[in-house]
Amino acid sequence: MRKQELTRFRKELEAQLAEISHHGVATMQDMVDGGEELPDPNDRASRESEIESELRLRDRDRKLIPKIHLALARIRAGTFGLCTTCGQPIGAARLRARPVTDLCIDCKREAERLER
Ligand SMILES: [Zn+2]
């Protein structure tokens, strides 16, 4: 992979990491601010589902953080864009859609098949 492309991926991953970190802080602040009593049960219910979906989002983000760090480490190590299972280059379209991926599409399918 060309250096220019690597730099683009690195910037993208770093931006994603910053966004997630920021999002986590903002969400926690929202929850604290929204902690006051809501007298209307409908308001309470919608507030609860709001918090629930926020928690789901944060859970997904939390799982993404180590993947981003690993992808950045692979960029530094010069192995970014190579499948960690078979060592073949990961398809450019797949990598662009999901820069944190460490498996080529064939190995990913195989891993998913074994999971089932
Ligand atoms: Zn592979």
Task: Estimate nothing, just give the exact number of structural domains.
Answer: 2
Bound molecules: zinc ion
* Shape, per Cα inertia axes: elongated
Known CATH architecture of the largest domain: Up-down Bundle
The number of helical elements comes to 4
- Radius of gyration computed on alpha carbons: 19 Å
Helical fraction: over 70%
Describe the protein's architecture and organization.
It is built from 4 helices and no strands. The protein is mainly alpha-helical and 116 residues long. It is elongated and about 60 Å long. 73% of the residues lie in helices and 0% in strands. The protein folds into 2 domains: 1-80, Up-down Bundle (Four Helix Bundle (Hemerythrin (Met), subunit A)); 81-116, no CATH class. The longest helix has 37 residues, at 41-77. The structure holds zinc ion (ZN). Zinc ion is lined by residues 83, 85-86, 88, 103-104, 106-107.
